[in-house]
Amino acid sequence: MAVCVGNGDVIEADHVVMAVPTPALSRIDFIPGLPGHIRDANSAIRYGHATKVAVVVEPRKPLHANAFIGGSVLILGWRTRRVLYGFAPSTAEHCDADTLAEDLCHGFGVWPETIERIEVMRWPQDRLTCGTYAHVSPGRFAQFRRSLPHRHGRVRFAGAERSSWPIYMEGAVESGELAAQSLMEIEGRA
Fold first, then answer.
1. What is the pTM of this model?
2. Span 49-56, mean pLDDT?
3. Summary count for the chain: helices (H), strands (E)
4. Fewest CB within 10 angstroms: 24, 82, 142, 172, which?
């Protein structure tokens, strides 16, 4: 099996683990193409279009809330000690980092002047993740886990959607480990 990577290099392999978010599979050319049932199962998974904001604040004032719903821009926020997190919907993609951070601080009753660091991740713009949390098309939830392929010939598919943690990074790692383990068993290396 030959795998052609983005820079044009060709890698020869006996097996391949495709450890990418499901929406990214639609941008990968398989020759021969994937069967229709695999394409259909993969296309049922969608990723949300939101921006995540993380703000580290000075430990001067105790934070009394653990979470909030609704702000001027953000739809929700939560915290872990001095780090405040929030999600902004796709309609807020025009907002700059300072505006998002200030809205997050206001949601927790924290002065924006206490901000030490701001990180903003605009998930839909990230070509490797293609969005935020996975969700399925209407009417497909009950069957998507059974129909989502884990393998096709010498290709193993791995990712959060194929795990017991279907929307978390831990699920992506778990799925990748299981795919690698299955290949090692086939090769007699386990």
1. 0.67
2. 90
3. 4, 12
4. 142
